[in-house]
Amino acid sequence: MLPTVAIVGRPNVGKSTLFNRLVGKKLALVDDQPGVTRDRREGEAHLLGLDFTIIDTAGYEDEDPQSLPGRMRIQTEAAVDNCDVALFLVDARAGITPLDEEIARWLREGDAPVVLVANKAEGRASEGGVMEAFGLGLGEPIPFSAEHGQGMADLFQALLPHL
Ligand code: GDP
Ligand code: MG
């Protein structure tokens, strides 16, 4: 059985884009419209010779924002419970939000090793967000671009010890 990596993060940070890039098929739905990923999806990921099962968690973006953190917590903890590594995605362009900080808290309390990925890091607009991600207390963020495929070697290096 392959090791399992769960992608977690608030809506719209690029989880499904990363999933698609690693699985190499359009299995996860990505759209500019928030709320496109409705289901948890699993695929077989390949990253520079590493093979693992990857889980893309849904966003619930289309539902009542008041209850979003509670539902995200249940979903995040369920995904992370059965994984070898949690891949925590933040949006380096948007910067760190209160929901990112909340997710970071759940992950710090959990048992799964966390790899922190600062996505959308192509170009200079992301430099401040990458710095902010350091403040989450989950180690050094990996500057990454799921859309452009940047940071793959660094992601490989970060996952390797856990898989
Ligand atoms: P999810 O809700 O976390 O699954 O996010 P999606 O994968 O659906 O992506 C949300 C939006 O961010 C889409 O418009 C993507 O095209 C965009 N996006 C994803 N990755 C990147 C990236 O590396 N750079 C930029 N600039 N945009 C990205
Ligand atoms: Mg998605």
Automatic annotation (TrEMBL):
How this chain assembles, per its entry, is: Associates with the 50S ribosomal subunit.
Identify the residues that the record assigns to the EngA-type G domain, covering every copy. Answer: 3-163
Q: Which residues of the full protein are shown?
A: 1 to 163 of 456
Q: Which family does this protein fall into?
A: Belongs to the TRAFAC class TrmE-Era-EngA-EngB-Septin-like GTPase superfamily. EngA (Der) GTPase family.
Q: What is this protein called?
A: GTPase Der
Q: What does this protein do?
A: GTPase that plays an essential role in the late steps of ribosome biogenesis.
Q: Where does GTP 1 bind?
A: 9-16, 56-60, 119-122
